[in-house]
Amino acid sequence: MTDRESASLGQRKKARIDRLAAAGRISEDEGVSLWQSAWRRLRTDPIFLVGATIVVLFVLLALVAPWIAPHDPTARLLIDQINRQANPIPDPQPGHPLGGDDAGRDMLSRLLVGSQQTLIVGVMATLFGLTGGLTLGTLAGGIGRWVDAAVMRVVDVMLSIPSLLMAFSIAAVFARPNQWTVILAIAIIQVPIFARLLRGSMLAQRHSDHVLAARALGVRPAAIVFRHMLPNAIGPVIVQATLVLAVAIIDAAALSFLGLGNPDDSVPEWGQMLGRAQQYFNTEPQLAFYPALCIIVVALGFTLMGESLREALDPKSRR
Amino acid sequence: MTTATTSTTQPGRRSGREPLLAVEDLRVTFGSRTSRTVTAVDGVSFDVAPGETVGLVGESGCGKSVTSLAVMGLLPARGAQVAGSVRFDGEELLTLSPQRMAEKRGAEMAMIFQDPLSSLNPVVPIGVQVTEVLERHRGMKGGAARKRATYLLERVGIPDPTRRLSDYAHQLSGGMRQRALIAMALACEPRLLIADEPTTALDVTIQAQILALLNELVSESGTALVMITHDLGVVAGLCSTVNVLYAGRVVERADRHPLFATPRHPYTGGLLASIPRLDEERGRRLVPVPGSVADNIPWEEGCAFAPRCPNAGDRCEAETPALVPDRGVRDPRLLRCHYPLAGDRTEEDA
Amino acid sequence: MTSTAVGTDILLEARNLKVHFPIKRGIVLDRTVGYVYAVDGVGLRIRRGETYGLVGESGCGKSTLGRALLRLEPLTDGEVHFDGTDLSGLKGGKLRQQRRHMQMVFQDPLGSLDPRQTVEQLLLEGMRAHGLTKGRDVRARLVELMEQVGLPRAALTKYPHEFSGGQRQRVGIARALSVEPQLLIADEPVSALDVSVQAQVINLMEDLQEDLGLTYLVIAHDLAVVRHISDRIGVMYLGAIVEEADADSLYEVPLHPYTRALMSAVPIPDPTVEDTREQILLAGDLPSPADPPSGCRFHTRCPWRQPTRCDDERPELRVPDVAAVATGAGDARPHRVACHWAEEIFRGEITPKRVTATDTVALETDGLGPVAEHPSPPEADEDVPPVHGG
Question: How many A-C residue pairs are in contact by the CB < 8 A criterion?
């Protein structure tokens, strides 16, 4: 290397240092991703905290229910008190603060243990629905062209049928309904909702500059879909999933209410308890009131979480 | 807080003309008790006389748009605190009731915005939008209002105005939309027009049409115009007095000719040196202003521009400069700087 | 060390390039009801090491042209040759390999960076796609890229939303440089930035061109920026280049009426110049590129429009018979213009129709026929003189 070259190298180095100063301040701290910054906002959002508290309590309850339930939820402890005409439902009494159900089983214990089954139905149905929706949405939004057209026509047809009616039809197909038929029925009606949402969100990404930039870099199409489009499109779907969880629990109750739920009531579930309560609704409303209240509170918890998550992920309010 | 408000040192004051709009020590802060507050406008003063065009120039975050919204009373009542004084024809606007303010807007003062599409109602024909203004503020009725609306559209250069009355905003081009917006703003012959980046979204040939139109309005009808822009080229051709804003404060105010000939504030000078001019020799290396508008220090601790300033010295990060009459130039000028750029006035002059 | 001299060899050439977007209607079956003629027959040559500036207003097709040159838009017709390789026929993996040599810088620095990736991930992606991470010190390369664009290495761990606009544009440039391209196509690289920051990015691009021997195509609406940065300039109007010349020649001897109008409309930050600046105001707006005018596409707005040829004969880009401009003989490249009357307009034999601020009735729609029927004002001094003496 000649002297002149090294001198010009020195100059160039100086020019680079000047450039550094010209770019303005950059802190030395580690970068904060969008999810991290959303989490920071959520941590101080009272609405999210209320929702999260409800949900966490519900999950904890479901985990420890068998140990804290005062009685066996399937034991017909109060069957002796039941008189078909005069007193179909055992009243609250010492040891049974909420009384019993129409089969003489302890109400409080059934509610506590019922949280387990309710959680399983809600989470499983949403998870299956989400998986199906993500698959279809990614196919439609990622590949486009005729795949998109085909997927979206199927989705349109599914969406044109009222969702509960659809769930009833699916559940009714099975000769012997059980827990899994309920989950499947609810999952299937969620699929088009997730698929459509993700597809729309993916299409917006497809036309964004950063996807164009990745194409210009020579990144493979599959990598563009999974590395750039999907992660940026999934936010609204996650929000939707938390809202759908609440709806799934209510839907399960609706299925049970119409006798399409799990007939095996040895494992209690809130929706199914609500369904059984219908024949006593006029005379003994508390039988429906307790599970209904539980469902509403849990659904509210998920909805509050979902709404605050939507706020936190909104790019317009990002800082 | 030191803010020069005396009209004797006010550049651009033509003798015998009372200001139509007098803004004094305007301060706008955003935020509430829970979140930290942001001072967007920090003691801005300026005034505008009839037939005069005053420019507010600066980059994003300098407070120019917030100033105009505060003058028009268009800031949200919740979240924005406005202090200081805005007098229109001698009447204090900041203490007016929202109803009285709404009557003034449209009737006596009007505003046009950068984005004409979002400023027009998409589901109402533009003719109806113009006649609405006339009916509300002028009490005009159907036929007369329509006739007047047609005249206004013609006045701002919209071809075939009778047919255009029934067009919707999306059917018009960007330039035509901005014209329609100007027609609405002019409906009641306002005495004050505030134009917030009116040509930024437009192409340069369309910008030329709109600027020519605004110029014509000011000279023919004596409208007072406040021109808000980041484009020094637009300012050079249009404004009689220019206020350069930085981080919510006026840093330099002068008539346009001396300001462009001898910029005194390093920020003004930096802006001029950093933009390529169409008419200059090629090959000049641009002199950028280092950093970005985010690299500020609070005005309370010194000069907000100091971290980006090539002239910055010891006093800049210790002592807040005041906006004071500048003795380094021959023209009447206000300057907020400890170490200004070279002026045109020698010791003998002084 | 790289050579910085502008060579004579052509790095990028486009021949009769056309990009037409179908306009589709219909719910079940998509029917094509028409086309947007975004780029309609463009030929251009960019020499290795030079900066070619493409200027025009919104809707003129300049951004589409830029993307089409990178094969990021489907070509309706025409060819693109890069360094001797015909890109127009390439597909899939072959095309992806070529992308390494030609990169893009975008207008919106935030939108063009994936918000969920750190700068390091953004930079590594292209390098990985082209096998540039194998057998070399990747860390050193990342730091070098950061230095080249004037960012500290702490920036590597950050996400796009944590930067200012100018810093983001530097990241965008670093990403483009990460695959060691020869050509950078910059689409409005500074128009989204604050005025005081624009010069930083312009200077940075100039420095990088010098250091790395890059070739640029800069697309912008701001004629002052384009003239500052470019060696050669093409002026676009409605999908075609209407005038092409070296930067100084274009400024000193603008021959196309549109170029003249465009130049006269650019405000100059100098009140003395502004007070005397003669503007050629154009009537009306840009016609829709879905329904471009017949003949010369500028005839609906042209103040110099003539009763013959303009309406029905599309002018070719040609070297005019004007002594003041380069003809292409020798080393100098020709000044070309697509106007039937360029010579007559240059010599002042044809005078323009004067347009005022409120007179925007499009010549085409006023139904009054060609210009000759409503003559220009009789006073000689009312005529718009050539913008800049030629």
Answer: 119
Residues of C in contact with A23 (CB under 8 A): 149-152, 166-167, 170, 200
Q: Is the pLDDT of residue B177 over 60?
A: yes
Q: Are C276 and C82 in contact (CB under 8 A)?
A: no
8 Å CB contact of A22 and B288: yes
pLDDT at A307 over 90: no
ipTM of the complex: 0.85
What residues does C249 pair with on adjacent strands? Answer: none
For B179, the domain range is 115-189
Residues of B in contact with C360 (CB under 8 A): 157-159, 209
CA dist list (Å): B161 to B165, C328, C360 = 6, 49, 12
Residue of chain A with shortest Cα separation from C97: A218
Domain count, chain B: 1
- pLDDT value of residue B221: 86
CA angle B28, B34, B39 (to 5 degrees): 20
B81-140: pLDDT as tens digits: 899 999 999 899 999 888 888 888 878 899 988 887 788 888 888 888 888 888 888 888
Question: Domains plus CATH for chain A?
Answer: 34-67+96-317 (1.10.3720.10)
Domains and CATH numbers, chain C: 10-230 (3.40.50.300)
Taking the Cβ of residue B53 and every Cβ of chain C, the question of whether any pair is shorter than 8 Å is answered with no
Answer yes or no: are the C-beta atoms of B185 and B177 closer than 8 Å. Answer: no
Contact C269 B275 (CB under 8 A): yes
Q: Is residue B132 part of a domain?
A: yes
Mutation site, B117, B204, B251, interface C, largest C CB count within 10 A: B204
For an interface test with A, give the residue of B34, B287, B292 to mutate (most A CBs within 10 A).
B292
Which carries the bigger pLDDT value, residue A175 or residue C38? C38
- Please say whether the beta carbons of C296 and B259 come within 8 A: no
Question: Do the chains contact at B203 and C269, CB–CB below 8 Å?
Answer: no
**A10 alpha-carbon distance from chain centroid:** 59
Say which amino acid occupies C25.
Answer: R
B-chain residues near C281 (CB < 8 A) = 205, 208-209, 212
